[in-house]
Structure formats: C-alpha cells, structure tokens
Amino acid sequence: MDADNYTQNVQNDVPPEVWEIIHEFLLGQANPKLDLRKPHLRPSVTSSYPFILFMYSLLIVTGVALNLSVFIHIVKNKLYNDVTCSFVLNNVISDIVKCVVVLPITLYVLLINNWILGELLCSFLPMLQDIPMHTTTLTFLLMAWDRLRFIRHPTKARFPAFVCIIGTWLASVCLVLPYPIYIIYIDLGKYVPSLDGVGICLVNLADDMQEYMRGIFLIMYAAPLATISYLYVRVSREMQTHQSSMTVIKFETRREGRSRTDSHSTTTDFRSSRGDYDRSSQYSRSSYRDNENGRTRYENEEPDLDVAKEKRTQKYLVPMVTLYAIYLCPLMILRLARLVLPETYENNKNFDISYTMFVWVAFAPTCSTPVLYIVWQMNRSSKERLLGYFRFSNRKLRQSCETVITAAGTPAVPRAKCGQSDSIVQQVDDGHSDNNSFQHDFPSS
Fold it and tell me: Predicted confidence band at 281 (pLDDT cuts at 50, 70, 90)?
C-alpha cells in the first residue's frame, strides 16, 4: 500500500481533527502523507543523527572487541579460578550484553519518534537497559567486599564466585520487576485497522513511580558506590599494615644476619655501640615490641598474602570503579531531573540531545574497563613496547638515566644499557615479576 492509499484509508476511519492530533502527537508534526507504520526520525536529531550513529557504532564495535578479547583471555588461561578474575569475567559478560542487546535497541528508540516495536519491548525495554547496569554495580560491590575479607584474613575461604555471579543477575532482575507496572501501551491498531502495528508507549510518572526512581538511584548508585569507596579505603589501610609488618620482619632478619656475619669476621666487641644504636633507632628492640602483634599476625595468620601483587591489583580496580561512577553519574541525575522538569515541545530537543549524549557516556565503561584490565595484565616489557610505539618510553628512560649519570659525575654509558638498567630498576620498584602466576601477556596485535 502506497502512502496516498494509506492516508486515504486512515482518513476514512478517523476524523480529520483526531487524525491530526494523533499524527502530531506521534511525530511532532501534522503531515497526513507520512506513513506511521514506518520509522521516522525525531525532529531534534535530524541534523545530527549521522554523527550519533557513528559514535554509537564506534562504542558498540570497540566494546564488543575489547570485552571478547578479555573474555577469551580469562577463559583460555583459566583465570576464573581466582575470585577477582571471576568477578571481572561477570563484568565482561554484562558489558557484552550492553553492547550487543541494550545499546542497539536504545539507539533505535532515541532516534525514532513513533513506536512500532510492539507492546513487549515497550514494557520490558527499561528492564533490559537496567539489568546489566545493576549487575555491574553489584559485581563491583561484591569484588570490593571480597577483597577486604581476603586482605584481612588470607587463609579464610573467599566468596563463592559462581554463586555470587548468579546472585547479581537475579538481584538485578528483581530490582527492575516494578518497571512494567508504570508502562502504558496503547495499540492504535485496535481502534483504527489501518494503524495496525502502530502504538503509543508512555511512562506513567505518578508519585509512586517517582519514589521508585529515587529509590533506584539511592539503592543502586549512591549507596553501593559509597560502600565501595569505604571498602577500598579499608583495603588500602590493611595493605599498609601488612607492608609495615613485613618491613619490620625483613629489617630484623637482615640485622640478625649482619650480626652473625660480624661475629665470625672480627673479634671486636660492638655490643656497646650496637646498644646505643638500638636505643636510638626506630627499629630498636623497644620499637619492635610495639609491632609484635602485627608481626605475629603476619607470620602465623597471613602467610599467603602477596602484598606487592595485591597493591598492583588495587591500583587497577580502583580506577575501574571510579570511571564507572563518573560516567554513569550524568545519566542518573538526568533521570531524576525528568521526574521534576516537565517535558514540553519547547525543551523536547534539549532533553533528546542530552539524553542521547548521557546514554553514550554511561555505556563508555564497556570500553574503559577492559582497557584497564588489559594494562593490568601486561608485564613491564609489554608496557615498554606499547609506550615505545608512541615514542614516549625510551625518551623518558634516556633522559632520566642521563640525568642520574650527570648528577653522579660519572662517565656516560651507552644509551641502550642505560635504558635496560633503568627498566630493570623500575621492574623491581613495582614489586612484581614476569613469573607471577596471576599475570599473563596479551598477544600483541
């Protein structure tokens, strides 16, 4: 059926004044020649939709590629045996669902003005949008809680990863179950046969709906992120305690070794001078007794804790959560603002553009999180090669090494050896080595 026949049939079924109201309500303009059964762009995005399509396509393709590479890496190397990596794997699955399912449908709804997707998607689209988002938030929360338990008591059993992962998805589904109650769908085909497949999808912004949205903001954004921040602060303090205890133990062991060596190599009695040193040193016997509880705890209860490894893990998990919170914040605030500010024809364009931009930003962690994980798993040599492609690493290494050599007043050494020695020093300073079982190299492209 062509457009003219379609318009004639509709006008025979619907009075002209009612038809113009329906047409203007659905498309924002009274043009009887347009077929409502076909998708029509929103007037607010007519000039910018190519750029919007490009940005969303770039986000989807990049997010799928990065998350699939992380998924294959974790499964191939069986890193899911570690609880932290299991939570990262759950986050990867959630991000893949966002890129493959949620983002394309959301982009379609943001660009198309009339609703032709049927009653099912009208009722369940908000659920599809929020389920993976809530899953990511709960995953970060459980990850931080598990890490605090592990840092404090390394010998105790950690959270069952599989049970926690299933729990995050079930909890997310339960949290979004009230959404269909507030969705109103009107099938125009029941009243006008010529409008079969055309409907009106509305959200009933009643008082209880506003309370529900505010509750979602508090329960699934503000409270979890505040709790995660508190847990990671506690984790950092616990690792500082372990680091100080380990430093005391290493110092005492090294001092006892030097004492035994001195007793065999010379007959001079250094006890009087050592006594003066011990009384004045911060690592003296009296100072050591103050750390006796920490030392006992480190030796007896926490022999399996690798402080350097955990500090490196903390170094990358905190930015993951921080970027996720920052990117999601504009969308969550806009959702609350739409409950208070009425949407009219005057501000409709501003709402559409803002919502389209904030949705893109809210889904940006689908790319930032896997990038941070990839950098986390790289060893020092891989990072140096990666930075070398941008002509950053070698230049900085040479400059820093030449500065040290000049300050020391010693002859200059070849630049290759200088960069090599500085790289080794940096690797030792980072407190990790290439034989760490938790770290693996990503294949270079």
Answer: very low
